[in-house]
Amino acid sequence: MELLDWKNLVSGLQERIEGVLTVGVFDGLHLGHQELINAVVTSGLKGEKILITFKNNPASLLRPFEFKGNLLSIRQKLEKIEKLGIERVILIDFSEDFSKIAGREFIKVLMNSINIQKMVIGKDFRFGYHRTIGKENLGNLIMPAMLEVVEPVDIENQKVSSSRIRDLILKGQIHQANQLLGYAFSIDVRQIKQSDYASSCQIYKNAIHQILPDYGEYDAIIEAKTTRFSAKVIMTEEFLNIRTVAYNSCDEIKYITFV
Q: The CATH number of the domain where 17 resides is what?
């Protein structure tokens, strides 16, 4: 999978590309997101399979006091996107200036940079300044035949959404969250300081930029540099503690997967 920078693409530094694309935050890459990506990958068209997303979650800039944290690190996000069959990812560095781009202008720039064979969006997709462009008027900006709208995924008569998953994780309802994600929720702790403390591995919660479950004890799979093992994870007010009886080196843990 190839990573492209949005600025290089729209400035002409990157050659024009052609393919089927989808656009979104894709925080969590839950079952609904997977349906969108599957529609891109299985379109039957010969062009490249393209996904446009953000390096940083727009909500962290637009609504910082409401934002509860990412479901995935950018590393996890890109790894999952590649496994789902996407060939090129265009990364946008979301900024205050970018947030003020009108939806019509964004589509114009997009079409000048990419030969769009088909654009796949979700039913509730909205974008542009004040979120003025959605499925009801996007067909006025590109040929309706180029547009495919994918219905949301419902589980237990409720739409699968990143906000719903966040709420479940915050409440410690990991099994329900994993059902909506379609995989086990995992925290990326590579490059985060880990300290040995009383037969445990201790990590400051403030150093983790992903959402974390409520106080309590959780079953988890720990993926370290050379091994994987089951462990108990204890969430306290300040720390995430991993009981590391089966593993002595605390500073080489990469992922904590809640099961």
A: 3.40.50.620
Residue whose tokens read 């393919």: 19
- In this structure, is residue 72 part of a structural domain? yes
Say whether pLDDT at 31 is over 90. Answer: yes
Kindly report the pTM of this predicted structure: 0.92
Roughly how many angstroms between the first and final C-alpha of the chain, as a whole number? 29
Could you report the per-residue pLDDT of 39-94, keeping only the tens digit for each? 999 999 999 999 999 999 998 888 888 888 999 999 999 999 999 999 999 999 99
Under 8 Å between Cβ of 120 and 150: yes
Q: What is the dihedral of CA 88, 84, 48, 148, to 10 degrees?
A: -110
Show the domain range for 92: 2-155
**CA pseudo-torsion sign 49, 24, 75, 35:** negative
